[in-house]
Specification:
The chain is an all-alpha fold. It has ten helices and no strands. It has two domains: 1-89, Serine Threonine Protein Phosphatase 5, Tetratricopeptide repeat; 107-192, no CATH class. Helices cover 80% and strands 0% of the residues.
Length: 192
């Protein structure tokens, strides 16, 4: 008799875990569809429901972090979700890039330096150089002479602005190139 109870208990536990897994997948599918349709607020709701089932869900934490990072008012909350996702997969380059972006915007150079050190195996030399140059440009205005900065900005604009648009704009502003920053921000907003 005790063996039957044990088997029944195992069956119930297995069934309930599969049920939760199935619910999580269904919620994620709905959230992804809504996000594709541009309904990010509704997708946000589904991602938060996923986290109620599984608070360490890599995809839900990542997606919430990306959605929240679009608003300057929720950068810290976005970082907390992205850090949870990074804890699950420290090599995800999209998460690393977004975290570098957010930490650079917030001027948290010590965190950027620590992340650079932690992610050195995941980043190419070019990526690490790019982040370091942006960090230096933002945190040390006027560190390069005007001619060097103009060359740096022209050579790196397409690459840096594509990958790290907000830190690149901050870099321009810190180097007294606000007109250029406004022009690029306007182009970005227009989708050019």
């Amino acid at each position: 008799m005790p063996q039957k109870k044990f088997k029944l208990l195992v069956f119930i536990l297995l069934f309930s875990s599969l049920s939760y897994c199935g619910r999580e997948k269904a919620l994620e599918k709905n959230a992804l569809e809504l996000e594709k349709e541009g309904k990010k607020e509704e997708a946000f709701y589904y991602y938060t429901r996923i986290l109620k089932i599984n608070d360490s869900s890599f995809s839900a934490n990542k997606k919430l972090g990306f959605i929240l990072s679009e608003s300057i008012d929720s950068l810290q909350v976005a970082i907390s979700y992205l850090e949870k996702a990074r804890h699950e997969n420290s090599d995800d380059k999209e998460i690393l890039a977004k975290l570098f972006d957010l930490y650079l915007i917030l001027g948290e150079t010590e965190k950027v330096k620590k992340m650079l050190y932690d992610a050195r195996k995941s980043l190419s030399q070019d990526e690490a150089t790019m982040i370091t140059e942006l960090m230096d440009c933002i945190s040390e205005p006027g560190s390069k002479n005007a001619k060097q900065m103009k060359v740096f900005m022209e050579e790196k604009e397409n690459l840096y602005f594509k990958i790290f648009p907000r830190p690149y704009l901050l870099c321009l502003q810190s180097q007294n190139l606000s007109d250029k920053a406004l022009s690029l921000a306007k182009k970005r907003k227009e989708g050019k």
